[in-house]
Design goal:
The chain is an alpha/beta fold. The protein has one domain: Aldolase class I (TIM Barrel, Alpha-Beta Barrel). The protein has 9 helices and 8 strands. Strands 1-2-3-4-5-6-7-8 form an 8-stranded parallel β-barrel, surrounded by 5 helices. The longest helix has 29 residues.
Length: about 270
């Protein structure tokens, strides 16, 4: 018997992507300066099925790469979150193309997070707070992705303070230690990247302890790099088994595994839809 729920969900996604494709083309054209008369109203964001995985994209690509960004925008609502990185953070000056890109992403129903490095807890907190403020004041971005987050108990208080600052402004906090940190971090973060490493290491990981799913409301994100096409479905299945809420899988590799979308981008979208 066919799965009518999945079929209906696929119909909704197809219709949504067609609408978003038109929106993305118009707005990216506007960013590029080719002219458009007035803003294009965003379409309503449809719901994602309960068993579907959402995708969070480390969007460390210049706004001028319109092909990259159109592919990301057209993938909404499966792409729920995009991390933007103007210049290893918000930069020292406002980058106008990022202002326009952020508006385009939001109009497509994508949540935008500003990148801030924390140096595994060793970066000067004044610098971290300054960058949090600049994302909000220059780009209107309240949500913060804290990269190189610490994982040890001794630094929980530092990240609790960072989280409080972001929450007071109405934003959400995603910490990226790249592994499962001390339990204390889950009391303050809205989401934590508990894995960021190669596909081979991903398959070597053990099943997380029960408390990670049973005793916390914090979202779990997985970022898996260097995964060839023949490992894609296995990675996505393992993400589900390990309780991930969001995932990003790429065949790109170091030194910068985020300078393009994976070659199997459409396949990842399909695999994430159960």
């Amino acid at each position: 018997m066919p799965n009518t729920s999945t079929a209906a969900g696929n119909v909704r996604l197809t219709a949504w992507r067609s609408t978003v494709a038109l929106l993305a083309s118009a707005l990216l054209c506007l960013v590029a300066g080719c002219g458009a008369e007035g803003p294009v109203p965003p379409p309503p964001v449809p719901t994602v099925e309960v068993d579907d995985l959402s995708i969070a994209v480390p969007g460390y690509v210049d706004p001028s790469d319109s092909g990259y960004w159109q592919s990301v925008i057209e993938a909404a609502p499966q792409v729920r979150d995009v991390i933007v990185n103007a210049d290893s953070g918000p930069g020292a000056v406002v980058h106008e193309p990022y202002v326009q890109l952020i508006g385009t992403l939001r109009d497509a129903g994508v949540r935008v997070l500003g990148y801030v490095s924390t140096g595994w807890g060793e970066r000067d907190p004044k610098t971290v707070y300054s960058e949090i403020d600049r994302w909000r004041e220059w780009y209107g971005v309240d949500n913060i992705f804290m990269d190189e987050a610490a994982s040890v108990p001794e630094e929980v208080g530092t990240y609790a303070d960072y989280s409080a600052t972001v929450h007071e402004a109405g934003g959400m906090v995603v910490l990226n230690p790249g592994l499962i940190p001390d339990r204390g971090y889950f009391e303050y973060a809205d989401a934590i990247v508990t894995f960021e490493d190669s596909a081979n290491n991903y398959f070597a990981t053990r099943t997380p302890q029960g408390w990670l799913q049973a005793e916390t409301n914090t979202e779990v994100w997985h970022i898996v790099i260097g995964a060839p096409l023949d490992q894609l479905s296995g990675v996505v299945d393992r993400a589900r088994q390990h309780g991930a809420d969001k995932v990003y899988v790429t065949d790109d590799v170091a030194p910068n595994p985020y300078d393009r979308l994976p070659r199997y981008w459409s396949g990842q979208l399909d695999a994430a839809t159960k």
